[in-house]
Amino acid sequence: MKSLFSNLLFKVFLAIVFGIIFGLYLPESVNRVFATFNSLFSQFLNFAIPLIIMGLIMPAISDLGKGAGKLLVLTTAIAYGSTLFSGFMTYFTTSGIFSSLLASHVDKTAQIAETAKELLPYFTITIPAVLDIMTALVFAFVIGLGLAYQENSSLKLVVKDFQLIIMQLIENVIVPLLPLFILGIFANMTFSGKVYSILSVFVNIIGVIFVLHILLLLLQYTVTGILVKKNPLRLLATMMPAYFTALGTQSSAATIPVTLNQTLKNGVSEKIAGFVIPLCATIHLSGSVMKITACAIAIMILEGMPFDFTLFAGFILMLGIAMVAAPGVPGGAIMAAIGILQSMLGFNEEMIGLMIALYIAMDSFGTACNVTGDGAIALVVNKITK
Asked: What is the pLDDT of the chain when averaged over all its residues?
């Protein structure tokens, strides 16, 4: 998984570079080939997203089970609350900052859009989805919750097999094709003259999100320190090996041994740490939700799309649920979010491509934020259950 993530990040960087070069120097006839691929891949994504939602969410909810006890409910509630807090904090912070920070870019983008040339695909194919996105979400919740109360169910085995198929689809088909999709997006933006404005926006967005994720960790450990009556900075400093391991591995699962060890050093009992840390590696997504929320707001501002708190409140609530099983799959978090971005925020193909590129560029920091926050949750659960 580590090599897959690192390789993907490098390929995305190359895709952006070559997309700009191709858009500048290759003739329109060649760039239309990439536009054709993007059109086909976008249709395939539209077909696959409802299946991905069902394949990830159904087994994740069914695995919770009815007999896991109060500890599972407590940990899940705290983790989900932390994820929601991250999303809403990001909304209130970035909606104001980005509105002023990106104001000049909005004007430039609007001017360019009026005169921009568009690369048209040579042909298109329509691939209707089996279910629409909201139907897939509701279906996944109903089946997942039903299976959580079935101890011996043949349907649960079918759901597990379906999950395996979806994971193979993401890992072996969608993720390898993402760099080519992003190349086509940037070639199109370069051809239309929008790329330089977009790249300058990237730098601003990444800088703001980096500061926000540090602030989130400080807030998490300040609250935790008050609850457990320990020095929050010392608790956070103890978790730094897990933070830097996650920066390198870009995987919550691969960092579990280090996170577990540092959590024990913070005074959490072995029983609580052994339960909470592996569970939170899957369900605690504060860093991932922060990245997706901030990037979505920035892109909507850049595109001149209206948004308000009501819209993003529903989006954040759904995002926290939809990505429950995502961190275990390379690229799974952003893939699980695409359906909600399309259905609730109205993102188009180009906006989805920008979201994927931004997400992958910041994946290390999001993962590090997720796993470091896991240590805070373990401290709180340990305090309550004592």
From this structure: 80
Of 359, 313, 370, 309, the closest CA to residue 336 belongs to 359
Residue 185 · residue 353 · CB < 8 Å? yes
Using CA atoms, how far residue 178 sits from 58, 173, 202, 213, 345, in Å, is: 25, 9, 18, 26, 21
- Output Rg (C-alpha) for the chain, integer angstroms: 21
How far is residue 185's CA from residue 360's CA, in Å, rounded to a whole number? Answer: 15
Q: What is the dihedral of CA 198, 199, 200, 204, to 10 degrees?
A: 90
As a whole number of angstroms, the distance between CA 113 and CA 85 comes to 36
Nearest Cα to Cα of residue 287 among 374, 205, 356: 374
Give me the amino acid identity at 326: A
Asked if residue 304 lies in contact with residue 327, where contact means CB atoms within 8 angstroms, the answer is no
Over the range 313-336, which residues count as b (16 or more CB within 10 Å of their CB) and which as e? eebbebbbbbbbbbbbbbbbbbbb
Cβ neighbors of 194 (< 8 A, separation 6 or more) are 109, 112, 113, 116
d(CA 188, CA 34): 8
Task: Report pLDDT digits (tens) over 169-213.
Answer: 877 888 788 788 888 888 887 887 766 666 777 777 888 888 998
Q: How far is CA 122 from the centre of its chain?
A: 32
Look at the pTM and tell me if it is higher than 0.90.
Answer: no
Nearest alpha-carbon partner for 15 in 250, 209, 189: 189
Query: Could you list the residue range(s) of the whole structural domain that residue 282 is in?
Result: 2-385
Residue 102, both tokens: 């990106």
What is the tens place of the pLDDT at every residue in 294-330? 989 888 888 778 888 999 999 998 888 776 655 445 4
What is the share, in percent, of the chain residues with pLDDT greater than 90? Answer: 13
Report the number of distinct structural domains present in the chain: 1
Closest CA to 89 of 201, 218, 199, 198: 218
